[in-house]
Amino acid sequence: MLGLPAHVTACLFDLDGVLTQTARVHNAAWTETFDAFLQRRAAATGEPYRPFDPGPDYNRYVDGKPRADGVRSFLASRGIVLPEGSPDDPPDADTVHGVGNRKNAVLLKRIHTDGVEVYPGSVTYLRAAADAGLRRAVVSASANCRDVVAAAGLESLLQARVDGVVAREQGLRGKPHPDTFLAGAKLLGVDPAQAAVFEDALAGVAAGRAGGFGYVVGVDRVGQADELRAHGADVVVTDLADLVDRRPDA
Ligand SMILES: O=P(O)(O)OC[C@H]1O[C@@H](O)[C@H](O)[C@@H](O)[C@@H]1O
């Protein structure tokens, strides 16, 4: 049913890049933030300025991960270690949380100006899943998940939410660890083997694989189908609408 194996009774959807077109907004906000940081650092150290690459740098080090993990992970790839600081650091602090807060200010400004767009094929799939009696949760690293879901008008199609705020409260590790997806399955009252994970991020499909979920759907928005498969996707589609009439082995 809906391109899923028969044992699947629940769907765990990532948000940014799967349900809403906000992965590209996050990516743009990270690019702006890291480029300003790297430029200042180059001027201070005399080292050459090498900008953040919204392709590989975003997909490998930032996409799908909790905010602070994204900061640490990308900067580590450049050999940079910042003090942790604390979550209420001001956005101009050169700490992991300061850089994260800077990016969040840029992100919120962009979302405020441009709004949130859904992927129409994903809404079609969500509706079809609801009609078919499949349980549905959103599982996102983003602390802005609740607001983005509301702005996209998707609340009524989702029955549970595990996001960056819930993860922090409950001490859940972020993707590529499976903790948040496992929490989503639990909220829906199913075993991981009965749940399908829908993910566009490499860290996200890896989390689906690590958690022993019943099926992992990779959603390829940026031309990385092979990497999605290599990180754990059972199937890769470019639009969830493609799955509506598909058998799982098709
Ligand atoms: O900074 P937020 O809104 O809590 O989001 C955390 C992460 O959420 C993920 O969904 C995005 O793929 C990442 O780009 C983002 O960094």
TrEMBL record:
Superkingdom in the source lineage: Bacteria
Keyword Signal belongs to the record: no
Keywords, alphabetical: Carbohydrate metabolism, Isomerase, Magnesium, Metal-binding, Phosphoprotein
A GO molecular-function descriptor: beta-phosphoglucomutase activity
EC number(s) given by UniProt: 5.4.2.6
Keyword Phosphoprotein: yes
Cofactor entry: Mg(2+)
A matching Pfam family: Hydrolase
Catalyses which reaction(s): beta-D-glucose 1-phosphate = beta-D-glucose 6-phosphate
Enzyme superclass (EC): isomerase
Gene3D superfamilies attached to this UniProt entry: HAD superfamily/HAD-like (3.40.50.1000), Putative phosphatase, domain 2 (1.10.150.240)
Family the UniProt entry places it in: Belongs to the HAD-like hydrolase superfamily. CbbY/CbbZ/Gph/YieH family.
Full protein name: Beta-phosphoglucomutase
Organism per entry: Micromonospora haikouensis
Lineage: Bacteria, Bacillati, Actinomycetota, Actinomycetes, Micromonosporales
